[in-house]
Amino acid sequence: MTLIPNGETLSFISIHKTDDVRQLALKSRPDGVDMAYALEQIAGWQAARRKLPSWADTDGLVFPPHLSMEQCSSEPTAVYKQRLAERLADGNAERHVDLTGGFGVDFSFMSRGFRHKTYVERQETLCRVVAHNMPLLGVKDAEIVCGDTEEYLLNMPHATTIFIDPARRDDHGGRTFAIADCTPDVVALKGELLAHADYVVVKLSPMLDWHKAVADLGNVSEVHFISVKNECKELLLVLSAGGGRQGGAPLHVCCVDCQQLADGSWHYVSEEYTDGGDICALLPCSSPSAVSPSALLQPGCWIYEPNASIMKAGCFAMLSARYGMPQVAQNSHLFLSESLVEAFPGRRFQVCAVTELNKKALRQALSGIAKANVTVRNFPLSVADLRKKLKIKDGGDTYIFATTLADSRHVLIITKKAPAQ
């Protein structure tokens, strides 16, 4: 891959950087223009504009092939990992090592503030791209190592933090979600990783069974679910020699939406991985509501849908304990309160009506509603089937939650969304 093309190619990229790449590919190649390179750079810049806005604003960066751009972290998640690395270092930011460097997004953010920073990647092209880009991004004196992760790990100097993002595609290009199916195998390398670092941060697919991952690795001290715009993007596990059951410390679980870091960051301790003790005493909890869910679920009350990170983590009992809210039913994952709780980490709705599914009740409750946003939770019909039954279109400012109550009744909860804070 040519890193610095000729002037004609650079000029073509500058002129056409906002054009449709597919349409550009159909045009004849202008004299002197390396068209394949130009299209790759234009596509890369357009992807960066969405995922990495500060990179898109940096002149002179070189972008890698499409797959590397697709797999790289977004800027919000990389900034979150930067903050995580800073906290773990706790003033002792001596050395950070990224053992699966890729396009270098996570490395560029996480390594800032460390005295020594090492990027390891086996693909020579990516190493050349990163070596070119890092100084432009303000990451200076980075050591770029083109080599095998496992070979480098065996002889590397001790680090404050190691970051590793094992590949989640099999030999046929399909996605994999189990740790054992990723490359490199972090479970097999755990001993070497912990021998060479104070902390090891492992990035995994949020589709993974995180309880099994924690059990398989054994030394996990923190679990982080990271969402962007209410879509869960990443699962991070922090390993340390004293973490997990071996160290006797509780497992800390963080659920965060990066678009709401100021008010959406939510931290709690998972009772499943704590040895004894009153877990609720560790939390800034409200008193549990003395009102039953069926009594609360009336027009005028408030209903809450947890954000995507909390839904992935699945610690709903802890959420209920923290805010003193009952769930509509055990498997609904919808929470209730008499008055608005603005700090709740998720979406908030005020209940307009609650109806069962008999024709007379539906006709009365849905009167004047031609469009609505429909969600089903623990309900026998799909969204498409329910929408067909109700004869309403998608959209509008009405939100309908279809769920099953504790007494097995199927109901529709018709709501309006609370204004954004």
Description:
The chain is an alpha/beta fold and 421 residues long. It has 3 domains: 7-63, Arc Repressor Mutant, subunit A; 77-280, 3-Layer(aba) Sandwich (Rossmann fold); 293-417. Helices cover 34% and strands 24% of the residues. The chain is built from 18 helices and 15 strands. A hairpin with a 2-residue loop joins strand 6 and strand 7. It is globular and about 70 Å long. Mean pLDDT is 87; it is low at 270-288.
- Can you tell me the CATH architecture of the largest domain? 3-Layer(aba) Sandwich
- How many strands? 15
| Mean pLDDT over the residues | 87
CATH overall fold name of the largest domain: Rossmann fold
Q: What composes the largest sheet?
A: 9 strands, mixed
Helix content: 25-40%
Number of helices: 18
Total domains:
3
Output the CATH homologous superfamily of the largest domain. Vaccinia Virus protein VP39
The CA-CA distance between the termini, in Å, is 47 Å
Which blocks of ≥5 consecutive residues have pLDDT under 50?
270-288
Query: How large, in whole angstroms, is the Cα Rg?
Result: 25 Å
Structural class: alpha/beta
Question: What would CATH call the class of the largest domain?
Answer: Alpha Beta
Please give a quick description of this structure.
By secondary structure, the protein is of the alpha/beta class.
How does the SSE layout of this entry go?
Elements: H1 7-16, H2 21-26, H3 35-51, H4 53-56, H5 66-71, H6 75-89, E1 95-98, H7 105-110, E2 116-121, H8 124-136, E3 143-146, H9 149-155, E4 159-164, H10 186-195, E5 197-204, H11 210-217, E6 220-228, E7 231-240, H12 244-247, E8 252-257, H13 261-264, E9 266-269, H14 293-296, E10 302-306, H15 308-313, H16 316-323, E11 335-337, E12 346-356, H17 359-365, E13 371-377, H18 383-390, E14 393-404, E15 410-417
Parallel strand pairs: 1-2, 1-4, 2-3, 4-5, 6-8, 13-14
Antiparallel strand pairs: 5-7, 6-7, 8-9, 10-11, 10-12, 12-15, 14-15
Helix pairs in contact: 1-3
